[in-house]
Amino acid sequence: MNRARKLVASISTLSTRRRTYSPSSSTFRTISIINSQTHHSSRRESFQPSSSAKPLCLRFSGREFSSGSSDTTSSSVCWNCGSSSEKAAFLFCDSCRSIQPIDDSVDYFQIFDLEKKYELDAGSLEGKYKDWQKKLHPDLVHNKSQKERDYAADQSAKVTEAYRTLTKRLSRAMYIMKLNGKNVNEEETITDPTLLMEIMELRETISEANDSKELDQIRSQVQEKLKQWSDSFVEAFESHRFDEAVKCIQRMTYYERACEEIVKKL
Fold first, then answer.
1. Based on the domain organization, do 154 and 233 belong to the same domain?
2. Domain of 147?
3. Is residue 151's pLDDT more than 50?
4. Can you tell me which residues the record assigns to a coiled coil (predicted)?
């Protein structure tokens, strides 16, 4: 419990530094510390303090999540009736109602008819997701051709992927950056000794905590930090300070992974 209190104080101290510090699935990546002297490693993550000759560095290990903009619209031609539409059809052809193959020009926001912005109504997203799943349920397409049933399965998988991506702050931030043609490279090294020490202490605290009440307290603090960096991302993104937005995403990754570790112990 004393360690949890110490962690709360550490997070609070770092929180005051957030405004002065300028600040990638699958979504969640392995984290590792880059150090000239390696004493400890883990298949998931490893944290090592560096020697005094070099600054502390923190590196994300994972693939790069980047793409060009997906804002372009393209015409769509139905494979069954040949009817064309200026707007890409998702799920059904407007003329013959046959199930269509996946069109990659339709982004996740368009699937749920949402405005393309970071902040969204979680209730509205969930409701539209359930509506799509009902329309794509195997029982409703069992009388269709095998080709259309396959298309329906592909569409259902895309809807689920879109929902999971937009539900969480971190993956949503990465995706909206992708739509704007901005790279989120999780291999980029960050040097911030204060942040590094906090993360090291956080991981140690999570590892040693065995009481669910203590774990809940730690998770509450971590979620607050995640929310703070999410808010910082919004400010940076909307101001087109994309380099700063990427740094916010990198910090959000730390706290997202910490939440995952806590959930595993609960």
1. no
2. 76-179
3. yes
4. none
